[in-house]
Amino acid sequence: MTVHFPTPARSRRSQTGPARLAVLGTRAVQPMALSTHAALDATLATATRDVLITSGRWAGTADPVGMLRQVDYENLRRGVRYRVLFPDRARTVPALAARLGSLALAGAEVRTLPEVPMDAMVIDESVAVVPGDRPDGRAGGIAVFRLPSVVHTVVELFERVWPAAVSLLAGDVPEGTELNGRERELLSLLSAGCTDESAAARLGISVRTVRRMMSTIMNRLGARSRFQAGVKAADRGWLVERAG
Fold it and tell me: 78-99 in b/e burial notation, b at 16+ Cβ within 10 A?
């Protein structure tokens, strides 16, 4: 969900703020404010109950919603509940995976989905924040909505997709997101039809270790099954060929 703010026409002197926009449903909605990052930090600092964050824009400088801020950690220390949703690919982007793992370690509930349906933040179910282009066309703008109907729509969509997302635990984020040689070999064996027992025998490890390694790989890839883990690994070129 990205909001675009057209530059107001000069002839409309009564329109001093951002132009009205159609962003949710069929009705035009006007943001209460076009906020700055500093103003958003100040608004986040007032959170008392919960913060929802959903972002598919990779938390870069052009992603004012998905950026992970110092105020987020301060809120977590104060007991504010955080639920954070990112795409599965975030698990394989080293810098982002590390930042999300740090947030999870601080107490946030972090999950991933194959595709995130919107970019938005909701604070205490009373303020909705979405990214928007500035009037000059540059990215990085922030639109703040306080209309209950807008906030409710964002929360409802978040709650619909949240149960299907896979948890990212702090311990699931390794120093590097690439698979090591042993993990690639294990995935290749299992993808070729080997059982846990036969894969363990061929690798010289225990069945328990095989299952632990697969759990780690699935978490890292955001996979909901071993089959999906194999597909995702193949897409990334992580499977190795074994002769014989």
Answer: eebebbbbbbbbbbbbeebbeb
